[in-house]
Automatic annotation (TrEMBL):
It comes from Halospina denitrificans. PROSITE patterns: PROKAR_LIPOPROTEIN. Cu cation binds at C76, C80, H166. The keyword Signal applies. Keywords: Copper, Disulfide bond, Metal-binding, Signal. Belongs to the SCO1/2 family. InterPro entries: SCO1/SenC, Thioredoxin-like_sf. Residues 1-30 form the signal peptide. This is Protein SCO1/2. Transmembrane segments: none annotated. GO terms for molecular function: metal ion binding. The keyword Signal applies.
Amino acid sequence: MTVRNATPSRSRRLLTTLLLTALLAGCSSGHDWNGKDISGLMPELAFELTDSSGETYRAEEGEGSIRVMFFGFTNCPDICPTTMARLKGAINQMPDSLQDEVTMLFVSVDPKRDTPDKLGEYVGFFGDDIKGLTGDEKTLRKLAKRYRTTFGYNEPDENGDYDVSHSSAVYVFDDEGRARLLLRSQLSRDEISEDLTTLVRETTG
C-alpha cells in the first residue's frame, strides 16, 4: 500500500487505524467462545466484601484460579438456584484435574436478610467450595456499577417480605482477575463447561 500522496491528516488516520487493528488482533484469544468475550471491555476483578464466616474477603485472595461471579440473593425463587445449579453442574463436568482451578463467587445483593450464616447455608447446598459474599448496599451498588449491572428492591408486602430484581448475567475472570467472559442464561451446562475448560487450559498451559 502506498500512502506518500495522502495528506498528513489522512496518513495519520490510516496509521491509527492500522495500529488499532494490530492491537485488537493481539488482544484476541482466538477461541470460539460460547459466552460473550469481554476481554478488555470491563475492569479487572476488585472488591472487598464479607464472606459467610463474617470475615473480610478481597478479590486478590482468589488469584491463581478462574473466578465465576454471580449477583443474586438467597430468597430468589427461580433465577438464582437455577443458575447456581447450572454453574456447579458445568464445573463438575470439567475434567477432574481442572475443577479445582475454578472458584464460584455468589454475591448477595440483599445484605439485610442474607447474613453470613444464611449465606453459608445457601451456598453450601450447591457445593462446599463456593464463596458466599455480601456487603453494605453502598459497596454492592459500586461493585454492580463496575460491571455495568444493577439491582433493586420491590415494595415489601404485609409480612415485610420483598423481592429483589437483578441481572442473571455471570461474569468470568481469569487467574489474574481480568474480565474474560459474560455467560448468558441461555447457555447450557455443556457450553459453560467447555468455555471454563478452555480458559483454564489457556491460563495454566
